[in-house]
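hey m, so remember when u said the tokens were messed up on ur end? i reran from scratch. heres the input so u can diff it against urs
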Amino acid sequence: MEGSPSPLALFGPAAISDAAAVRSLLIAAAKAGEAISYSGLLADLGHRFTRPKMRAVCKTLDVIDRAARADGEPELAVLVVRESDGLPGQGWWVGDQPARHDYHGAWTGPEAAALVRRLQEAAFAYWRDRPV
């Protein structure tokens, strides 16, 4: 979460591919009812933003969401957004996430924002009072 220091920061940089570490940050964001930017997530993991690191974290987000779906949990990758418009990046839109929710529209604009908001709200509601 952008304004809070990550508990992982106490232990040095976490591996971007550490799905458990990334998942714990996303669950904390969901419990707080907040999205997190790509740069904020990388910072919480102890890394500066670079495009290669962002692409690597996106692969980890895919792993996390596949496991969430298998466990009947809401997706968490939708919580990771661009600072510019508050929407997930291109990789999220070209993956199978939107189609699974019967969305075939643009990656930006009000319809995209409504889908993202709906999926984020589902994650917030699911994790709000759930023990981890």
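this time it looks ok to me. The radius of gyration is 14 Å. if urs says something different then somethings off w ur setup not the seq
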